[in-house]
Amino acid sequence: MQMVKSPMSRKLTRNGGLIYPVIGLALFVTFLYLSFGDLLWFSYNKEIELSFVERNGTQFFVDGKVFYINGWNSYWLMDHAVDYSKRSRIRGILQAGAKMGLTVCRTWAFNDGGYNALQISPGRFDERVFRALDHVIAEARKNGIRLMLSLVNNLNAFGGKTQYVKWAEKEGVALSSSNDSFFYDPTIRRYFKHYVKMVLTRRNVYTGIEYRDDPTIFAWELINEPRCMTDPSGDTLQDWIEEMSTFVKSIDRKHLLTVGLEGFYGRKSPKRSTGNPEFWAADLGSDFIRNSMLSTIDFASVHIYPDHWFHKKFEEKLKFAAKWMLSHIEDGDKELRKPIMFTEFGLSNENDDFEPVQRDRFYKMVLDIIYKSAKRNRSGAGSFIWQFLVEGMELYNDDFGIVPWERPSTYQLITEQSCRLAREHGVLPTQTEHLKDFCTRTSV
Description:
By secondary structure, this protein is α/β, with parallel strands linked by helices.
């Protein structure tokens, strides 16, 4: 089952009247203050110097120091930044990420043809929305947070490849009934290349820096969760990845590049029957090893959604997710010789047996495997929770989203991961002395 990552309505259930939330909030604020002290009130107004992240073999490096990532997803940053009244949410989530010791946020650098569209039609851009993306990048820089920017969606949310196909149809281009023509039609490929060039060469109105020259951007992601089901051999998607990754590198050789894969093994992979969640995963037109092997791809990406891939009990999902991660880390170490990034992971709250403690256990399993990889200098280079929100964003939530500070145990898990990684490989210049002090006196 594919996830639909678009805003959706949620009913809020409230129990116990007003007094209990007030008491709970007061206790949590006290917990945060006692635990983190003046870290919460640190000012991020001063200029923060960033360097480009580089890759050497299976590891990332910043300023010569090994870099393992504790990150998160907030896909909604550009969309919110269009509305000045909502920009405080961007600042709030980036400051919160910095306070938790997080270093990279993955977000969308696309919105094609719909409400608040960045690309109104092929080659036509809304300057107002481009300035919103400028703001997101500038605000991330202020907070010492790097961004992984995705360039198009395989799904329909925020336009995606379907919108490109619709644009081509309006031009009278003869296409198949499938939106997979996004991957092979020459007209659509030209549309996408023009989009990529416009984004990569954009000069930020707030910083004066072209995107391709800005170290605030950690990496580019070609496409979120690519699938080409009309060609299960994988040849069509492989050709597209090769052409587009080469094109990106012809414009920008400073930034890292990844595909945006879910991590499924294709028909020709020896792991298609032992590594995949179920048999259908080999027929989606993607292949983790083959797609990631290209010299123009700097690191591989994997997603972890066991409750969307099969219907089993929680313990079985947890067991599979651990096996899934270790399988891909093995691929990074032995086959690809590249870092492996688990760029989305989440546990749905719509499972019949869901309890909040399950989500904590799932998060802990993922974070523990990344920590062990960091301790052993292996290729498992980082993980990104799907997804973080701030209060009042119910319309943007799905069944995976969390406000990280609402549940103290979850907040502590995330922050302790930052501390563990810092202990193994040191505190980056962008991570405050407050975090360094906190981690030295916190047991993990």
